[in-house]
Amino acid sequence: MRKNGISADPHLIKVGDYVSDKAYKAACDLLEMREQDRPTAIFAFNDLGAINVYRAARQHGISLPEQLSIIGFDDVYPAASMCPSLTTIRQPFDLIARQCIDLILEAREGKVEQNYFIFPTQLVERESCVSPARP
């Protein structure tokens, strides 16, 4: 966002954590905003959080994706089977696992040179995102 000159509205940032109840409550907080202030899209911290956004949207009578687009992060089961199927960011779990093993082996030998990594991700476009209905 910063790269594109877009500033983040702190009222639209909610912490959902990995816990279902927190993600659901965060989604409800966003969806209970006045319609003109309510977001047209939510990027969830993970796919479990996105599932809870689906739940909150349905309970608030908000149709997916016509009134609310949702993107998750992980591409775990059941993202492709949801209705609508969840657009998400796929992580390279196999590459992450290999790097973790290498890091453990390096640590055992006292040779850790790097303690953080940036892994490539992939946008998996499915049915949960459309262009916003309002400007």
SSE layout and pairing:
Elements: H1 20-31, E1 41-43, H2 47-59, E2 69-74, E3 87-90, H3 93-108, E4 122-124
Task: Please sum up the structure shown.
The protein is α/β, with parallel strands linked by helices. It has three helices and four strands; from the N terminus they run αβαββαβ.
**Shape label:** elongated
Task: Please give the largest β-sheet.
Answer: 4 strands, mixed
**Order of adjacent strands in the largest pleated sheet:** 1-2-3-4
Percent helix range: 25-40%
Structure description:
A 4-stranded mixed β-sheet has the order 1-2-3-4, covered by helices on one side. It has helices at 20-31, 47-59, 93-108, and strands spanning 41-43, 69-74, 87-90, 122-124. With 135 residues, it is α/β, with parallel strands linked by helices. It is built from 3 helices and 4 strands. It is elongated, with a radius of gyration of 18 Å. The mean pLDDT is 91. Strand 1 (41-43), helix 2 and strand 2 form a beta-alpha-beta unit. 30% of the residues lie in helices and 12% in strands.
Main traits of this protein?
135 residues; alpha/beta; four-stranded mixed beta sheet; 4 strands; elongated
